[in-house]
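Submission checklist for the structure archive. All mandatory fields must be present; incomplete records are returned to the submitter.

[x] Identifier: DNA mismatch repair protein MutS
[x] Organism: Halorubrum californiense DSM 19288
[x] Residue count: 977
[x] Sequence attached
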Amino acid sequence: MPAAVRILGMEPADRETVTGLPPGIAAAREELTPMLSQYADLCAAHEDALVLFQVGDFYEAFCEAAETVARVCEVTLTERSDSTGDYPMAGIPIDNAAPYLESLLDAGYRVALGDQVEDAEQASGLVDRAVTEVITPGTVVEDDLLESGTTNYVAAVAADERPGTGSDGDDHGSGRRGVGLAAVDVSTGECLVTSGDADAVAGELDRIAPAELISGPDAPDFEPSDAERGWTTHDHDAGAFDRRTATERLEPYLPAPGRRFDADAELRAAGAVLAYAEYTQGDDGPLSYVTRIRRYDPRDRLRLDAAAQRSLELFENRGLGASDTLFDVLDETNCALGRRCLERWLRRPLVDADAIRSRHDAVGEVADRSLAREGVADALATAYDLERLVSRVSRGRADARDLRSLHQTLAVVPELKATLAGADGERAANAAGTGPADADDPALPRTDHLRDLRERLDELTEVRELIDDAIATDPPQEITEGGVIREGFDGDLDDLRATEREGREWVADLEASERERTGIDSLSVGHNQVHGYYIEVTDANLDRVPDDYRRRQTLKNSERYVTPELKEREEEIVGATERADALEYELFVDVRERVAGETERIQGLADALAELDALASLAAVAVERDYVRPELREDSTEGVAIEGGRHPVVERTEESFVPNDADLPRGSVAVITGPNMSGKSTYMRSVALAVVLAQTGSFVPAQAATLPVFDRLFTRVGASDDIAGGQSTFMREMSELTEILHDADADSLVLLDEVGRGTATTDGRAIARAAAEFLHDELGATALFATHYHGLTDLADERERVFNLHFTATREDGDVTFLHRVVPGASSSSYGVEVAELAGVPGPVVERARDLVAAEEAERGRGASGVEADGAVDGEAPSDETTDPDATDDGDASLREFLAEEASGARDEDDPDASDSAPETATEGDRAPTADADEGVAAGAPRDLAAELRDLDLARMTPIEALNALHDLQSRLDDGG
C-alpha cells in the first residue's frame, strides 16, 4: 500500500454510493491526481459494480466503496492523502483475492477488476489500467470461486412482443405472452435456450437454478421458489434485448440465428445473455468457447418442479442429514466433468423410452464388466475439468500449468479406449477363465451406446503432442519470466538460453579466477536487481584492487566494482535473458492459440468423458447397492409394478429397511392410510424416486421393477410455509395443490400427502376428497394419496380406479410397533396418541389425550347402538366438526347401521309401541337410519350376521385380522348375505 496512509474509523456506506462513481470522488473530480482520475473514469463506466483498482500488489477501493470493502472483507480502512485531499482507502492482496471477492459476492455486490494492462517498468508516466473482468454471481470463472463439478448459470428472460400463440403452437389465452429463456455457464461455455408461458419458464428457472437472472424490459417478474438458495435479479441494458442488436450479437456464435430459434423471445434472451457474458469478461468480443448453444423443449424431459425436487430431496436435504440426498447416493463420479453430467441428468430425466433403454444398456454393460468399470474409474480420477480448462485457453487466460493439465487429461483417452475395448487385462482375464462369464465376446463394447461413446473419445493426438513438445514438464506459475518452453522446441530460444547459460557459467568461474589474479581470498562476485553484477572487496584489501576495476557502489565496510569484461558479459546475459523471456512468451501464446483452435473438439471429448463417468457412477451404485434394471412398459396404458422397492437414501442411512411392493395401474388413485411414522411418506417417495432413477438411466433399488414413462412428476409431501412471501403453511399447500391440479394429466405421477390437514377438519376433508375425485375423474393421473381422513377410503367403493392401501402396526400391552409394511385395505387407526408418546410428549398430556379419545369413542359407540348421546366430551359443547379422522363416514358405517337396525327390530318385537325411527347420534355419519330409509338392508340381511359381529373378539386380534374380519362381514352384507 502507499506509504501516506493512516487508519480510520469505519462507518457503514450506503449501497447506492458504493457502486459506480463514489460521491466522495465525484465531488473533487476536477482536482484529482491522475491516478484517482483514472479510478474515477473506471467507476463512472461501471455504474452497477464496485470497482477494485490495482495499485502495486493490491486491489484498492476509495471513499464510500472503501468503507464497504473494509466492512465486508474485514480489512483495515486507511486513508490516502495527496495534494487534493484525504480519501478513505481499503485494499485486498491480489495474490490472495479469492476469499475477499467471495465475501463481496455473497454480500450482493458485482465487482469490476481494474487491472494494470501495461508493464509498469515500460510505462512513461501513469500506468494504463482497464476493467478486465466484472465478477458477478452468475459469471464467475475463477476456480477459487467455483465449486468443482458444479454448473453456474447466468440467465436472461424476454417476453414475446405480442400476446397470443407461443413457441409450442398452443394458444396461451387472451393476453398471455410467451417467454424466452437463455442461460449460459461462462466457466464452461454451455448455453441453453427454451421458451414457454410464464409458468413453464418459472419451472425451468427452478430446474436450471441460475445464480443470476437479467430481465428484459417487457419480461414478467420471476421469483425463486426458494429465497435462501435462489438467484439475484437485476435489470440489464434494455438495448441488449432489441431484436436487431441480439441478432448481431448472436451472428459470431450461430449462422443465421433468426432461423435457429422457435420464438422471437428466445433469440432476444440469447443475445442479451451473451452480451452480458461478454461484458463481464472485459468486452473483448465474442466468447469463442461458447460453441454449444442448444435449444430444447421442456416437454422432452421429465418435468420436476421445485416442489418435487425439494420433497424428493434430489439435491438438498434440510433435515439432520443435510448431505443425504439422491444425488449423494448416485455420485460415485471420478471427475468434475462426470459430476456435472450426472447432475444434469438427474435434473432433467428422459421421457424417450428408446433413449432410456440405451442408457440402461450402457449401465448394465459397465456393471457386468468389473475390470472395465475399475479401469474407467482409475483413468478418469486423473482427468482435469476439460470444460473449464478449454474456456480459459480460449479466453487467453490459461497458463502453462493449465496446458500441462490438459495434456494429462488427453493422455488418459487412449487408455480409456483400450479399457472399453477389453484390451489387455479384461481379455487376459477372460482367456484365463477368471473374467465374467458373459464377457468373452471379442466385440467389445457390446452395446451400441458404449460403442458410440468409445468412438467419440477423440484422442486429439496432435494437441497432446504439441503440448508435450512445447511446455516444460513442471512449468512455473508465471508465463512471462521464462522456464515455460521445453528445450528443443525452438532453435532461436535455445541459442538465447545457451548464451545466457554460458554467460552465467563465466560469471560463476569469475570469482575463483579473480581471487587467484588479485590474491584477495575474501573477494566475491554477486548480483542484484538494481546494480547488476559486481565484484566486492573489503576495505582491508582495497590496496590490492587492480587498475581495471571500476567502482560501482560504496558500502560501509567494502566497495563494489565492475570490470569492462564483466560489464560486457552482463549485457550479454541480461540481453539474452530478456530476449529469451519475450520469445518464450510469444511461443507460449502461439501454442495456446493453436490449442484454442481445437476448442470444439476438446469440448466434444469433454462431453464423452463426462457421459462415460456418469454411466460408470450409475453402474458402480447398481453393483454396490444391489439395484436392478427396470423394465419399461411398452403399453402406455400400463402402470407401476415394483417388487421389494426400497428408498435409496433411507436405506443408506438406516440399519435396516423394510422393502415394499407397489402395484399402481395407470390412472389409478391409491388412498394410503396408516399411523404417523409408519412409512407412508417414505413409501410414496420410494415409488417416485424409482421413476426418477429409471428415467435418468439408472437402475433402481428393488427386486424387480416394471415402469411406464411419465412426462411429469408432482409432489405435495410435507408441511412448509413461506412467511417472507406472505404464505401460511395451508396457503402454501393450496398453492402447490393448485399447480398440480392445473398441470397434471394422464401421463403424470402425482404424490399427495395429508391434503387439507392445515385447516378445519370439515373443510380439509372436503378439499381432500374433492382433489382425489378430480385426479381420478378429470385428470386420469396415476396418484398416491396419503391421508388421515379415513372417510376417503370409501372412494374405493365409488370409483373404479381407486383402491386402498395401509401401513400395519401392532399394539401389545399398550405399546405400538410400526411394521412399515404396506398391505391392501384401509387402516383401522392412526395411533396419534401413541406417536405423541414416542415423540416424548409429557406423560400427563398423553394420558389426558387418551381419556379424551376414549370418551369420544364411547360417545360414538353409544350413538351407533341407538343410545341417546349429546356429542359432548367432558362438558364441551357438541360441534359439527371433529378433530378425529375416525369420526368421519367410513367403510364400517353400513355395519353400524345394520346393528342399529337389528337393535330396532329387537325392540319392536319386545315392545310393539317402540318408535320406528332410531335416535339421533352426535354425528351425522353415525346417525342410525329409519326403517323406511334402510328397509332393504333390514329385510334382506340374515340375522346371523349381527350375531357373528357381536361374537367377534376384536381385542385378541391384530389390527389387520380385525380389519379383514370386518371387511368380510361388510362384503357379505353388501351382497345380501
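[x] Structure attached
Curator remark: The mean pLDDT is 82. The chain is about 40% helix and 15% strand.
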